[in-house]
């Protein structure tokens, strides 16, 4: 885990703060660009293998993860509630099937991501709230904290590589 990350567990979810060395516009672009998002969103051991995204309020992000170790697969479906370029993304995420139909495997989780300018970089603030304490515990048991940590590590590497390519 990066020393630039802070995780807060609450009864209904988790809060994550991660300092990144790139400006909010660059970090936001890593979420907004479908090809870039698919390169880092899932942890390395469970990458995105298929994804479609309508990056707009009301748009749907439907993605498919597969474990490189076990071959286990999971589909997720998120509906964007709010998108403010370079500042904020809000969505509700559920489990789904390959067709995008919501399944009962996971209750909805409400996620807010904020891109806070901090010097020349960004404080990425992620707030994930579940419908109940029981659902929050289920998410913790599924490894959501480690998954976010590993995914954000990949994001940081990707942003560093992009910065070095420009220089």
Structural write-up:
The chain is α+β, with helices and mostly antiparallel strands. It has one domain (5-132): Alpha-D-Glucose-1,6-Bisphosphate, Chain A, domain 4 (2-Layer Sandwich), CATH 3.30.530.20. Helix content is 29%, strand content 41%. The chain contains 4 helices and 8 strands, in the order ββααββββββαα. The chain has helices at 24-32, 34-40, 133-141, 144-166; strands at 5-10, 13-20, 48-53, 60-66, 73-84, 88-96, 109-118, 121-130. An 8-stranded antiparallel β-sheet has the order 1-2-8-7-6-5-4-3. Strand 3 (48-53) and strand 4 form a beta hairpin. The two termini are 27 Å apart. The mean pLDDT is 93.
Brief synopsis:
The protein has 167 residues and is an alpha+beta fold. The protein is 29% helix and 41% strand.
Q: Main sheet?
A: 8 strands, antiparallel
Kindly report how far apart the N and C termini lie.
27 Å
> How many beta-strand runs?
8
- Figure out the total of helices: 4
Instruction: Return the CATH class.
Output: Alpha Beta
Task: Determine the mean pLDDT.
Answer: 93
Q: Enumerate the strands of the largest sheet in spatial order, edge to edge or round the barrel.
A: 1-2-8-7-6-5-4-3
Question: Considering DSSP H and I runs of 4 or more, what fraction of the residues is helical?
Answer: 25-40%
Helix-strand topology string: EEHHEEEEEEHH
Proportion of residues in extended strands: 35-45%
């Amino acid at each position: 885990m990066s020393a630039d990350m802070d995780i807060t567990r609450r009864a209904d979810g988790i809060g994550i703060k991660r300092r990144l060395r790139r400006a909010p516009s660059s970090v936001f672009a890593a979420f907004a660009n479908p090809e870039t998002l698919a390169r880092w969103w899932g942890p390395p051991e469970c990458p995105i293998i298929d994804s479609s995204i309508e990056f707009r309020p009301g748009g749907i992000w439907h993605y498919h993860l597969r474990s490189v170790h076990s071959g286990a697969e999971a589909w997720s479906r998120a509906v964007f509630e709010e998108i403010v370029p370079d500042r904020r993304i809000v969505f509700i995420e559920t489990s789904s099937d390959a067709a995008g139909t919501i399944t009962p495997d996971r209750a909805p989780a409400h996620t807010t991501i904020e891109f806070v300018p901090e010097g020349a970089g960004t404080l990425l603030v992620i707030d994930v709230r579940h419908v109940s304490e029981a659902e929050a515990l289920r998410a913790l048991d599924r490894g959501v904290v480690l998954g976010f940590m590993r995914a954000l590590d990949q994001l940081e590497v990707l942003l560093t590589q992009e910065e070095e390519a420009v220089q």
